Amino acid sequence: MFSKYSGLIPISFFIFLVIPFEGVSSVKIQLSKHRGSKSVPTSLKRPVVSDNTTSAFADFGKDLMSEIPHVVKAATNNSDQMTSVDAIYYIGPVTIGAETFQVIYDTGSSLLWVPSTECGSSCDNRQSYSGEFTDLNSQFSLTYGSGPVSGDYVKAPVTLADSSLSSFKMGLATSVGLPGFSYGEYDGLLGLAWPSLNQDPNTPVIVPALYSEGSIPANMFAIYLTPDGSGGELSLGEIDDTRYAGNMTWLSLAQEQWWTVDFIGVKVGDVGVVSTNEKILEAPSSTASLAILDSGTSLIVGPNDSIDLIVAQIAAASNVRIGYDSSSQIYAVSCSDVDKLPSLTFVLADARNGKTYHYTLTGPAYVVSSLSNNSGVCPLALQPGGSSGASSGGGSMDLWILGDPFLRTFYSVYDYENSRVGLAAAYPSAGSVVPGSAMSKSSIRCVIGLSLLSVVVAAFMVI
User: Fold this and answer.
1) Its pTM surpasses 0.90
2) How much of the chain, in percent, has pLDDT values that exceed 70?
3) What total number of domains does the chain contain?
């Protein structure tokens, strides 16, 4: 498996969304599943599961390490259907020239790349682009957490469903150092973040490019993942109000790089566990004040100390035994205990006006039961990503990544025009959204200052 966030996450799972769309009207892309008041403990020593669950957990960790890089199954044709593999990856088609590729769509990166015909053994068994293109005589080099990808910038015709760009700047990879790529089933990545995240900030992102050409009616897209992980829908240029319950809540971005919002803290049940503002949520200080909404991450990832505190409180509140597998860096519980797990609430804030909202997931929503492999061991969708401010060798984590377990609970809208994201409880879902208090102006200034500092630090570590 590979990690996108170099220096931030030593190991993580990723899913990606594809956005084919048609004409000038908005488009909905169907996604389908391929298979299948207690005190907070001050610390948690990650346990190793023992007794009768030792073998099952060891096998589980081994299976994760061996299977995740190549579980993606490509669709057979260029259609509006997208495939979900065990609620971990979502893939779909993009046509470059006359050739169709199965790519991973990702709101946590910004470049479209597929293999070049000059890519050697690292691209064995993957489709490479052999059609016409304009060589831009410049190179790209991306450093993902698990390996590098490099190649040449080119311009070529790109089509998503029936919407086309006659010339779009993208990458043709000549070397792919991602473990398992050559025997995987995906042919590349298509990023849906902001142009500033690209190595060359003049490289466009597909949705704004299509909007500027008049192919979609609004410079935005929305993601709906079914709460059960069986599939979903991706909409371009509109918000589908049949896919969520209650009101849409809007959060102005803290910065235009990833889809990044201000992070206030986390509650387990009614107990605050970590916080960046004790006036809003009384809890120990968090080491990260930003959160990324990332369709390209299969889990919820945070700083080691914060994740440890959260898992410790989950265990204390539910009296459920939680194990930890060091090889896969995954916490897990017995599948029979999933319904005993308490709710998990993320408190996020609008970067402009300081208004806060509480986004609550039920216990089953932060368990990835599809990865149990019939072992009776169900992994929690919570992963330690590194220590805040740690050296690159030890891994550093100065932000939260709210991946697919969060997005399966909340319908999400990504609005380039107004620099904001929208969140509402996905339908049907047991998730809930509750408005909170607003931060004072001094608190907002403090959070913005911390956010900018984190961005500057992270920019040196993340592609």
Assistant:
1) no
2) 72
3) 1
